[in-house]
Amino acid sequence: MKNKRLQGKVAVVTGSSAGIGQAIALAMGQEGASVVINYHANEAPAQELKARLEEGGGKAVVVQADTGNPADVERLFRAATDAFGTVDILVSNAGIQRDAAVLDMTLEEWQQVIDTNLTGYFLCAQAAAREFTKRKVDPEARTAAGHILFISSVHDIIPWAGHVNYATAKGGVQMLMKTLAQELAPNKIRVNSIAPGAIKTGINQEVWETREGSAGMLSLIPYGRIGEPEDVAKVAVWLATDEADYITGTTLYVDGGMTLYPGFSDKGCCGNGYKRQAYRQLLYRYACYQTGPLGRFQNSVNNFANFVRPLAAELIPL
Ligand code: BGC
User: Fold this and answer.
1) Cα distances (Å, whole numbers) of residue 50 to 22, 148, 164
2) Would 124 be classed as within a structural domain?
3) Do 166 and 290 have their domain in common?
4) CA 203 to CA 88: how far, in whole Å?
5) Which of 163, 230, 245, 246 measures 20 to 30 Å from 309, CA to CA?
6) 198 CB under 6 A from ligand 1?
7) 138-152, 175-189, 263-277: least confidently modelled range
8) Same domain flag for 49 and 129
């Protein structure tokens, strides 16, 4: 029988009705953790996940909460302790994108993303830390009082035009994680981030499901494949185990090399590969443009050939 690495632990996973959060909640549950499945608006998949975990002999509860709202976060953690007595692992994952060019971005679009992707992480981490610090810990033991894991993004270091709210929140998550790791280390609380690259989920589906979009994405991924939620979930499980007891204040990039400046992979501006790279980037930009807010609402540039070919012709002498 498989050795269950999170047996006896309680994990709260925010935004776990879909995508990366769902894969993490499933993987942690399969490793023996009791799981608090949190959703914001979409209850059915959260209930399905609970049923799936229970069928496998696991324990789970489902709690609706908007993690950007302090009262909801309080209720989420109360529900967790009511159901399972305590919390050992927090995975702050709930996140949204509200993309717009900076010139058009509304204060609401800015605020919604900061509330969910940054303030929500702070609120959940604070609630978790309050719970973890109730425990007595042995400073010599190779086990933490609790683990806080932020699911961040490669955009905690890669700037992202057209997504200033998102990239700013993720940049903030990096410093939130490091500062909390520093502040809470004496309490034997570990705090880390996973920064996923392009992972196939609903958040970026409009891009990866088109041929141009997925080719463009792949041009940014040296390892040559778009990630799956399970790629992140496996790392999240491991980071929560005592095998990772000496890891705190770190971001693990699970990105197939997206943060390796792939534009420089063929000698940068000195080789020929930059032309191919530039062409693929154009395809990607076009796909993002087409599916993004500008593309949806402005029909003035909607012809692929007119948009790409003149530029491509300059870059790739035929
Ligand atoms: C975003 C995705 C994007 C990926 C790589 C993630 O944080 O949510 O939409 O594909 O970063 O750019």
Assistant:
1) 10, 22, 35
2) yes
3) no
4) 28
5) 163
6) yes
7) 263-277
8) yes
pLDDT of residue 300: 45
Q: What would the mean pLDDT of 146-160 be, rounded to a whole number?
A: 98
28 CB near ligand 1 (under 6 Å): no
pLDDT at 296: 54
User: 158, 203, 208, 220: which to mutate for ligand 1, most atoms within 8 A of CB?
Assistant: 203
What is the pLDDT, as a whole number, of residue 227?
98
- Does residue 227 lie in a domain region? yes
Tokens of 87: 């919390």
Distance 196 CA to ligand 1 centre (A): 8
Q: Are residues 71 and 198 in the same domain?
A: yes
The single residue listed with the structure tokens 């705190």 is 248
In a domain, 217, yes or no: no
Residues 39 and 181 in one domain: yes
310 or 207, which is more confident? 207
Strand partners, 254: 196
Evaluate: CB of 240 within 6 angstroms of ligand 1: no
Check whether residue 276 and residue 183 sit in a common domain: no
pLDDT of 18 reads 98
269 and 130 share one domain: no
Q: Which domain holds residue 277?
A: 262-315
CB 221 within 8 A of CB 256: yes
Give me the pLDDT at residue 270, please. Answer: 73
Residue range 202-225, pLDDT digits in tens? 999 999 999 999 999 999 999 999
Same domain, 244 and 269: no
> Could you tell me if 83 and 165 lie in one domain?
yes
Distance from the Cα of residue 107 to its chain's centroid: 23
Q: Which of 204, 206, 251, 254 to mutate to test the pocket of ligand 1 (most atoms within 8 A of CB)?
A: 204
Q: Which residues are catalytic?
A: 166
Lowest model confidence (mean pLDDT) among 41-55, 115-129, 245-259, 268-282: 268-282
Domain boundary among the residues 235, 254, 273 is at 254
pLDDT at 316 over 50: no
Q: Which residues of 46-59 are buried (b: 16+ CB within 10 A; e: fewer)?
A: beebbeebeeeebb
Asked if residue 245 belongs to a domain, the reply is: yes
Q: Average pLDDT, stretch 234-252?
A: 98
Residue 57 CA: distances (Å) to CA of 34, 39, 62: 10, 22, 16
